[in-house]
Amino acid sequence: MILKLRSLLIVCFVLFTSASFAADRWGWRDLLPEQSKAFVDPFVRFSAMQRYDLINIMTYRESDNDPELKTKYDTAIQRFSESKIDILELIEKRKEIAEQRKVAQSSVNTELIGQKGRLPGYIVPLEMDGMLVTQFLLVPTAGACIHTPPPPANQIVLVNLEKGIELVSLYTPVWIEGELESGSQKSDVQLSDGIAEVDTAYTMLATSVELYN
Q1: In the chain, helix, strand, coil percent, each to 5?
Q2: For 13, 44, 76, 85, which has the most beta carbons within 10 A of its beta carbon?
Q3: What's the rounded Cα separation, in Å, for the pair 21 and 74?
Q4: In this structure, what are the phi and psi dihedrals at residue 138, rounded to the nearest 5 degrees?
């Protein structure tokens, strides 16, 4: 009876600690507040052809009714209509949509602020101490900010690490652990052909950084 009770307690302990550990692991979507998850950007969902048609429409609208552009304009309008997209209405609302996009990309999940957790990602170094990276951007995809456009601000974490970590590769995933904080900041990222300014919405003083496995 005692042996069975001990076995049951061990099983319960394992299940409890496993659940707690899993709860501390965040995915990048967890960093998005509900309003950001609900926002759908109609322009981002356009196909390559639709983006081409949008350019033709805007070019014609900004011209003095150039007859050479009118054919492309009419064709573009027709294709959007066939796709059941009221493109002229979207164009009129583009400033409103742009503001909604800005809010969706910069808002933070307040439920995670002040919480400790682990987040996987890739390192974009900002500051070095010899061969060690002491400050970096954690991003969800390899090469982001350097070889591809930066993710939204609420999909980047500005990480400070007092002890520093040796950078293996920009394409080597890591786990970072620490307390997540909010803080809108701009960071300069060194590119091969210059410097790019990147916006971040989160910060973390990391207590550990380890290779992802």
Answers
A1: 40, 35, 25
A2: 76
A3: 58
A4: -100, 125
> Does the pLDDT value for residue 8 go beyond 60?
no
Q: Name the residue with higher pLDDT: 54 or 144.
A: 54
Q: Can you tell me the mean pLDDT for 167-187?
A: 93
Angle between helix axes 48-61 and 67-82 (nearest 10 degrees) is 140
Could you tell me if 99 and 52 are in contact, meaning their C-beta atoms sit under 8 angstroms apart? no
* Dihedral pair phi/psi, residue 150, rounded to 5°: -70, 150
Reported pTM: 0.80
Three-state SS string over 154-165 comes to: HHCEEEEEEEEE
CA distance 9 to 29: 35
Binned at pLDDT 50, 70 and 90, residue 21 comes out as: very low
Q: How far apart are CA 202 and CA 206, in angstroms?
A: 12
Stretch 164-172: mean pLDDT, rounded?
Answer: 90
Residues found in the chain: 213
- Which helix H or strand E contains 196, and what residues bound it? strand 194-211
Three state DSSP letters for 124-193: EEEEEECCEEEEEEEECCCCECCCECCCCHHHCEEEEEEEEEECCCCCCCEEEEEEEEEEEEEEEEEECC
Query: Which two three-digit tokens encode residue 31?
Result: 């960093």
Neighbours of 148 (CB within 10 A): 11
